[in-house]
Amino acid sequence: MDHAGSSSGRGAQSPHAHQPWPHPGQHQHAQQHPLTAETLQTQQRNVAPPHRDSSTWSLSDQSQFSTGLSVDDENDADSALGDVDDGQQSTQSIRSSIYEYIEEHGRTFHRYKQGKYWLPNDTLEQERLDLQHTVFTMRLDNQLGLAPLAHPPQSVLDLGTGTGIWAIECAMKYPSAQVIGTDLSPIQPEYVPPNCRFEIDDAEDDWLWSEKFDYIHLRMMFHCFRDHLKVIKSGFTHLQPGGYMEFQDWLPVLQSSDDSIRGTPLEMWSKLYLEAGGKLGRNMLAPKSYKRWMLEAGFEDVVETRLAVPGNPWPKGRENKRMGYLQMTNFLEGLHASTMTLFTKGLGWSPEAVEVFLVDMRKAIKDLGIHFYWTTVVVYGRRPL
To answer: Has this prediction a pTM greater than 0.85?
Structure first.
């Protein structure tokens, strides 16, 4: 989803009241895992990769990196885990739409710019987003990002902030920074650190901030924009010289190093997900182009890193199993909402047909004999000094 300070040049006040953080403390994350040292991180600087869009992407196209995951032939996941846009709208109607939701298939969705973001915004989804944050930080060795910030940032923008958990943790990590999180839904908590605030905004609209940021962060935005390059160019313009912009995403193409995914519902879901997104006007493989687009926008020292996240607790190693279990739970909890929306609106499926398909999908997701993984793509670049 489209994810503070008194010096902000934003034209309108945030719709959320600023409240002191009542009980400072770190969010609890899963223990760090050992994958990073074992995983080849693809880091190619300043050379734009060849572009391939959704129509030419093959599910058999393996990313050129080692997943660092080994199959556990004696898999006992439970024991291993242990405890583990209308200009004529009035301001009043816009503000009203921000706080109103619509309901589809038993879930609530944002009304402001209705339909732009496909996932719901209800309590179930908020809990899933926080779980997803845990998986991301776990995979990044408990870091909020990979950009090599030379100094603690003083002004941070988090686009698509969702529940605001990344922005809140960033504000706690950098207490001297002013952190702004933006989103289409006002689902962020009321009580936040004093240096963090949230605004309702669409990153594809013109950016009205007068200040420049040291760090701009976006996570899981691959399906949110029709024009990613426009957003990247806006980010470049609103960065301080030497500031960084960073994308963190998963490619929605499930893969397995040993081909155990072949012929399974997981393989079919990947193909249909890409097709549905394309028919709805979204480039579902946008993360493969982030580096090229950032170079085109003028960024330098652009680095792309790819890391594997196991889809369930199939690999060896306690931390790998823990991460796989969390990601399996994340996928299961988000599966219905994302699939129902895309398959009914993009492919014309009936809700009943989607429900039938998801029965086999849930079984496949939990099948430890299918050694599938998600590819995490992190791309960051620096605005020249």
So the answer is: no
